[in-house]
From TrEMBL:
InterPro entries: AGP_Transferase, Aminoglycoside_PTrfase, Kinase-like_dom_sf. One of its GO terms (molecular function) is transferase activity. Residues 39-200 form the Aminoglycoside phosphotransferase domain. The keyword Transferase applies. Pfam families: APH. Keywords: Transferase. It comes from Nonomuraea longispora. The keyword Kinase does not apply. This is Aminoglycoside phosphotransferase family protein.
Length: 245
């Protein structure tokens, strides 16, 4: 019998690997429903669903390795990063999923609440939060929604050489902002943004991507601390905020 490897585990969900099978255990079946339906609709490679017995979803492993990890240098080629940008464009050009995404008012309200908690609880200096909240404002503008992955971090994009072999973790997929996906993909790897944009093949507003870097980090930091992750590690979310000062 293969060893059981814990990929990630916290109060909301856990992912285990046994050989070439990933077992995702989620306390919220709505997220699992979204993941399965999104992978069925996505026009880019995704893991194959082997079986589903709530609360467990079994997925086949993808060929290759992750494009990179937040806080670590990426060894992937420039062509692989361009291919990731092209995959994002293909997804964004697909028909919208039928369920709603988050509204701008909802995002702004959550952002204000998180910023207040970060300062009140002494998690981050007030000037760091204030400056990044100002930058984040540029992301809260009217936009035409696309089929967005919603959590397109580099550890969710798998490559083999220069080829994208699949994208995982679709629980946040919904109609959303194309530039949010590009921002999450390049978070902490700003030097790769040019390659991603080249692969994307459409004009983008880089200032809005930078705004999403700030907004994403501000929203994530408290959750990460509370669930046993370290957003203050080198190259991670706190450093992303400091880079904007």
């Amino acid at each position: 019998m293969d060893e059981v490897e814990v990929i990630v585990a916290h109060r909301q969900c856990a992912t285990l690997r046994v050989g070439d099978v990933f077992l995702k255990i989620d306390s919220d079946q709505r997220r699992s429903d979204v993941e399965v339906e999104s992978m069925a609709r996505a026009p880019i490679p995704t893991p194959r669903v082997l079986w589903r017995r709530p609360p467990v979803l079994a997925l086949a492993a993808l060929r290759g390795t992750a494009l990179g990890r937040l806080g670590e240098p990426s060894t992937a080629s420039r062509a692989a990063w361009r291919a990731a940008g092209a995959a994002a464009r293909t997804l964004h050009d697909a028909p919208l999923p039928p369920w709603p995404g988050r509204s701008l008012d909802e995002i702004a309200s959550r952002l204000d609440g998180e910023c207040e908690l970060l300062v009140t609880n002494g998690v981050l200096p007030a000037d760091l939060v204030t400056r990044n909240r100002e930058i984040a404002e540029a992301a809260l503008r009217p936009r035409t929604p696309v089929f967005a992955h919603g959590d397109l971090q580099i550890s969710h994009v798998f490559v083999d050489g220069d080829e994208i072999t699949g994208v995982i973790d679709w629980t946040e997929a919904a109609p959303g902002d194309a530039l949010y996906d590009l921002a999450v993909l390049t978070l902490g790897h700003e030097e790769r943004l040019g390659d991603v944009i080249a692969g994307y093949g459409a004009p983008v507003d880089v200032d809005v991507i930078r705004a999403w870097w700030s907004l994403r980090s501000l929203l994530a930091i408290r959750w990460l601390f509370e669930h046993g992750f370290d957003p203050a590690a080198p190259g991670c979310e706190v450093d992303v905020l400091k880079a904007r000062m």
